[in-house]
Each structure stands twice: as C-alpha cells, then as structure tokens.
Amino acid sequence: MTDLLIRNLRPMGAPATDLLIRGGKVAVIAPGIDAPGIATEDAGGAIAIPGLVEAHTHLDKTVMGMDWYENAVGTALSAMIKNERGARRELGLDPARQSMRHALALVGNGTTHIRSHVDVDTENGLAVLEGVLQTRDALRGTVEIEIVAFPQSGLMIRPGTLDLLDRAMAMGADLVGGLDPCGIDRDPKGHLDAIFALADKYGRGIDIHLHEPGEMGAFSLELILERTAALGMKGRVAISHAFCLGMPDWNRVEGLLVELAAQDIAILTTGAPSREVPSVKRVQSAGLRMGAGCDGVLDTWNPWNRPDMLDRARIVAQKNNLRADADLEVVLDLVTTGGATVMGVTDHRLAVGCTADLALIPGRTLAEAVALGGPVQLTVKGGRVTGREGKPVAEVP
Questions:
Q1: Which parts of the chain register pLDDT below 50?
Q2: Could you please report the per-residue DSSP string of 10-78?
Q3: CA-CA distance, 194 to 180, in Å (whole number)?
Q4: d(C-alpha 260, C-alpha 222), whole Å
Q5: CATH for 4-50+349-388?
C-alpha cells in the first residue's frame, strides 16, 4: 500500500493537520482532507518528522535474540577485532538472521534508511556480506539499506583482503570502506591508495572509519583530502567517527574543517561517550554534511547500544552539551535529514512531492520529543506502515 491518509498529525511540531500520500509521495498537507477509499491512520496529535536515519551501524555483528554474550576481552581495538572473528564461528552467528533482527528493530523505532558497514576478511570471506545482501533484498520497501564493504580486520596487514573487497563491490556493496590507515594497517599510503582505486574502479563512494586521535588522525585526514581532490571525488567521501576532530587544538581542527568543507567530505558521528568526538556545532558551522549512528548494537564489542536513533540523538546531545530547545532540534535534524543528505537522499523532508518516509513521535515540541525519546507511534516508508508502537510490522526471525 503506497496510498495513505494520516489525520491529526503535527508536521515538525506545527499545528495539527492531515497528510495525504499517493503513490508513495506526499500529495497534500492540509486540514480536513477528503480522500474516500484511502486507508486512514489517526496520529492523535503526534509530531510527524522525516524518517529516522541510521547512518553508521553494523547490521552483521549483533547477537540480538541470542544468549547473553559474556565480554571478557576489554576495550583494546585490535583485541576486540580478533575476538569477533573467532566469535562469529563459535556463536554460530547467522548474518542474514541477525542483520534482519537488527534492521527490523530499527524500523520499529522509526528508521527508514540505514547505512551499514559489513565485515569482509580472510577468515569469514564474503559469507557475512552475502547474509546482509539477503536482508537488504528482503526488506526493500520496508527500509533502504546501504552497504559499505568494510575491512574490519585490516587491509594491507591481511593479504587477500583487497581482492575480497573487490569482489564485494562486484557483488553489490554500495560503498568502499576503510579503517585507520595508520593505526591498524600502519601503511597509510598503501591503504588509502587501495580503497580509492577501488572506489574509482566501481564509481562508488567511500566511508572510512577513522578512530585515530590527534595528529595521527589529522595526518590521515590530509591524505584522504589529497586523494579526494586528485580523483575528483568531491561529495562522495565520508569519515566515520573522526575522533581527531575532537582534539583540543581547535586552531588545527578549524583548518581541517575548512579543507573538508572544500571537498564536501561528510562526517558521521556516534557521539561516543568514551572518546573525544567532532563538535556538532563546529562541523555544521563549517558547512559540512553530518549524520549519526548507533554503531554496533548488542554485539561482541559492547552491551550498551540500542537500535534506536532517538536514543542516539540524546547521547549525541549529551556528549555535545546541547541543552537548549533549539539545539535539540539541531540534533533531531542530524538523525533524520542530516543522515539522509550524507546518504544522497535529497528529498527527505515533510513537503509535497517528497517521498513519504516519516515517523510519528510523542511530544508537544520537537525538543520535548527528543527528550522523551519515543516510543515511535508509527513508521511509514513510501506510504506503507512499517512500524507501530516501537515494533516492526514485519515478523522478526
């Protein structure tokens, strides 16, 4: 069903009105719409926002619905990566089933678009990617899933991974992923040359995990900027985490932000409480596109995160010390239209002619809606109801 009438909703907290969807697009926004024969929902005065966008997660990693995973590894990045490779086999983690569980949980919580990094490594090969590709296909029309082929275990330090990444792109991955070219691969030139060459070969974008702090991360950013300009990839590169942009030397950071803006390189944050993170206000003031994500959710890395972008908005706001109502509206935009813009979705708004992707949430104002954090009353994707009261409509495996 792509025709739907929603009565008594408040677009972005405005006075109550009706919204008519025809053919998956917003057709009319006005009070007292007459549309005989069209399925109707009553929003009960809920606020309507564009669908929530999970712009940085790992659908392939979750253990949702499985036994509790006892984490005895700690917090060292290399140890967690190594542990996860083995745990996939030991736990019998089915990437198709688990990614479906994770994606549907996001849908129930108002999400209409997901960008997921999916591990490609020499121990698990392409099996993980195959499982998430199945989920992407199965959920077409329910949620849009963008896949990043991600060398989580390293690229240059694990011979054979580059060939697997190449094959992953040929199989249908949407973007080329990268990871800490100095800190993990210890070969920034080799790492970045390889992933930019793959992106150029397939005409795809890039999304690089950059956990590297301070000057190390700034050095990697400069190398990324050089290649983005040289290959004419302006607007097609994103940096996830970008912890180095949270370093105390703001003169250094401001210079990097100017260069990133010149190449239209997007920033994706998780608001990680344990790390220095890019300042939302500084990044946006520099004119960069910016989105957010929950990162991994209930996996072998951590037990904390929830598949819920309203919850992530709260975390990002707290990490950035955003308290004013106007600032909470900024964070809400970050987890909706902001993330969509990073993913190349240009009509992610509540406006006539735009795709009817939206969520209904409680609250008298947008700021209160962020503070309340749901539950999401209704998720609508292209005019189809895909979630009710925080739960997906589709059956969860």
A1: none
A2: EETTPSPEEEEEETTEEEEEETT---TT--EEE-TTPEEEEPEEEEEE-TTT--TTSPPP---S-S-HH
A3: 13
A4: 9
A5: 2.30.40.10
User: Both ends of the chain: CA-CA distance in Å?
Assistant: 23
CA torsion through residues 187, 190, 193, 199, sign:
negative
Say if strands 52-57 and 111-119 run parallel, antiparallel, or are unpaired.
Answer: parallel
Inter-residue contact 191 to 155 (CB < 8 Å): yes
In which region does residue 241 sit, left (phi positive, over 0), alpha (psi from -120 to 50) or beta (all else)? Answer: left
**What's at 376, amino acid-wise?**
V
Q: Could you tell me the CATH superfamily of domain 52-342?
A: Metal-dependent hydrolases (3.20.20.140)
pLDDT digits (tens, 9 = 90+) for 249-276: 999 999 999 999 999 999 999 999 999 9
124: closest CA among 157, 156, 151?
A: 151
Burial of 38 (0-12, 13-18, 19+ CB in 10 A): middle
For residue range 336-349, what is the model confidence (pLDDT) as tens digits?
Answer: 999 999 999 999 99
Domain ranges of the chain: 4-50+349-388, 52-342
Q: Which two tokens stand for residue 159?
A: 């011979």
In angstroms, the CA 346 to CA 366 distance is 22
Beta bridge partners of 146: 115
